[in-house]
Amino acid sequence: MTNVKPGDGDRTSGELLLLDTASLYFRAYFGVPESVRAPDGTPVNAVRGLIDFVARLVADHSPAALVACMDADWRPQWRVDLIPSYKAHRVADEEAGSEEVPDTLSPQVPVIEAVLDAVGIARVGVPGYEADDVIGTLATASAAPVAIVTGDRDLFQLVDDRRGVRVLYPRKGVGDCDVVDGEAIETRYGVRAEQYADFAALRGDPSDGLPGVKGIGEKTAAELVTLYGDLAGVRAAAGEPFSKLTPARRRNILAASDYLDVAPRVVRVATDVPLPPFDPALPGGPADPAAFAALSDRWGLNSPLSRLSAALGWT
């Protein structure tokens, strides 16, 4: 495999497809029955579901390049240092810092990684960063249009109609996707895509352990960001006794100053991750034919891998 850095080569003829891999295999796990098993009875519902979803994405969107972005660090220490509650409720082992994952999903993750490697789909993760940060860096650097496939709304902040960056958001499990562009974000949330991170910081997100500002939910956060332009504008208004903010909102925003000092750095995805060399091109055949065949036999993946092979134009 040729090692190239993102942005190298001719990718302007088609779309760069970026997979938020963990988000998608979690959805596959819960969307495909656990009765889907390997010949020895081991559950492979997440493996098969993800392979079939990737095959469908490739067939439907004909991307010029594809990268499976990985969580090399699902809860980076630098984010925890800023907000200790960040994803704290998901920690399964406090000492190891491991994420709580269903018992029958954990053994499937190495199989997913091995399949991606055998197929030849670029798999990129960077120590100290989440998949979101890898996606943010690749999407920002890409000269080609970008489709980000994720079930994580945090990545809506990367949508950019001018540069052709959009999100494909699975409706249920890993089935059909909603196309999320700037108009869709404004319609759903009442803010522009470039305001989404500030809106999310104000609103908070219990699923990520982000408290937000007391008394400010989604609707109010959108109203404030729209009225004052960004988080800095909202905070400046809170410091002005004659602003349009109610006394209660002013007090709550000022009381949350310590949180708001650091929240934007936690909520915003990094766009400057030092990525390793990799080849984002779609594979013209298995990168490791022997491993490809062995994985197919061992885990009963002949049908989904055949569909992926067909989508990639191998057959």
Automatic annotation (TrEMBL):
GO terms for molecular function: 5'-3' exonuclease activity; 5'-flap endonuclease activity; DNA binding. Residues 14-284 form the 5'-3' exonuclease domain. InterPro entries: 5-3_exonucl_a-hlix_arch_N, 5-3_exonuclease, 5-3_exonuclease_C_sf, DNA_polI_H3TH, FEN, HhH2, PIN-like_dom_sf. Keywords: DNA-binding, Exonuclease, Hydrolase, Nuclease. The keyword Nucleotidyltransferase does not apply. Pfam families: 5_3_exonuc (PF01367), 5_3_exonuc_N (PF02739). The keyword Nuclease applies. One of its GO terms (biological process) is DNA replication, Okazaki fragment processing. 5'-3' exonuclease acting preferentially on double-stranded DNA. PANTHER family: 5'-3' EXONUCLEASE FAMILY PROTEIN, FLAP ENDONUCLEASE XNI. This is 5'-3' exonuclease. It comes from Actinacidiphila reveromycinica.
